[in-house]
Amino acid sequence: MKQKITIAIDGFSSTGKSTIAKQLAKNLGYIYVDTGAMYRAVTLYAMQQNYISDSHFNPEELVTNLYKISLSFKFNEELGFAEMYLNNTNVEATIRTIEVSRLVSKVATISEVRKKLVSEQQEMGKNKGIVMDGRDIGTVVFKNAELKLFMTASADKRATRRYKELLDRGDKVNYAEILHNVQERDRIDSTREDSPLVRADDAIEFDNSDMGLKEQFDRIMSLVNMRL
Ligand code: DC
Prior knowledge:
Blueprint: E1 6-11, H1 17-28, E2 31-34, H2 35-48, H3 59-64, E3 71-76, E4 81-86, E5 89-90, H4 98-107, H5 111-124, E6 130-134, H6 137-141, E7 147-152, H7 155-168, H8 175-191, E8 204-207, H9 213-227
Parallel strand pairs: 1-6, 1-7, 2-6, 7-8
Antiparallel strand pairs: 3-4, 4-5
2'-deoxycytidine-5'-monophosphate binds near residues 36, 104, 105, 135 and 136.
């Protein structure tokens, strides 16, 4: 049997990390973990408890109550990927709304939140055979990952992708608002003190602004095969 490796995919929001990660995991028979979904689920909990809104944020209360948050992924056979559950409720659709997107970067700056999620992520990957995407996977969660990718694309391309995704879901969306959200998240994610979004020294950068999915997948699979 081939040895299993750890694949860490980081990059800016809406760079298509999860699409490529899902495809890789399926092809290799690996587990796929979308760590952004975990930060989004914690944000949803904070919104439900009124610890955060567009006009206020009470991080202390969130930190005090973090132990009440239980996150899990359950594989949905029909969809072919694992959906996010918050305290045993399926929140896969709710965590993708623009309301959550607006607040998630703020929640992700809180060190206690990061500590909890990073330790859960390390536990999920302890046996390798995992593709994990996020912002700090190659720099913090799996510093020794055999393959690290850093995905980039222009803000305009990314906002357009996100706009189409939300339209397809039937959400009412405004392109300017999405572009603003993408740029604002880039800024907060890259400048926060704890685990900012940076390319790990040994990560391979992938600008997919003008690259189709098939080309990306083929290129990345050849990198994977070199490491197996
Ligand atoms: O990948 P995403 O857009 O769903 O992530 C949502 C937010 O969560 C993103 O703006 C930053 C944060 N995040 C993070 O700080 N660390 C991760 N490993 C994954 C996401």
